Amino acid sequence: MIVGILSDTHGRADATAAAVNLLRERQAEFFIHCGDVGSEGVLDQLAGLPAAFVWGNTDWDRNGLQRYAQDLGITCLGSFGELALGGKRFAILHGDDEKTKMRVLAGQQHDYLLQGHTHVRQDRHVGTIRCINPGALHRAREKTVAVLDTAVDELSFVRVEGI
Prior knowledge:
Structural class: alpha/beta
CATH topology: Purple Acid Phosphatase, chain A, domain 2
């Protein structure tokens, strides 16, 4: 399965639209947003797509955004979520809750840990877990998203230009 990963949009629907288009061009079959969604406009860009997201530390109107996401058919995983995609186990969080992150890493029960928060792309292993941060689409020197092919464990970062 090809998973499109984005994070830290902070309400930037224009940047999200550009990112989603790039991810779709790369055949993304499922979209995961790692928090700091920021607005209904960002969720609009994921409408009609198989997608899920977690809360970030700047997602203030959680009740309103959750209702809106539900109306669009987008899964809200809360502050932490787990998904099984392409035969792999995913843990998804924003990255601002260090305790939860450490618990997931200590448990070694997932194939992937996806997070945002730092606005810096990252790909590293902690034990058997591959930790991926796609970067950010707001307040980042280089705006990036990530594409993960679970069948071959191949990750690529995609630069989002012109935003």
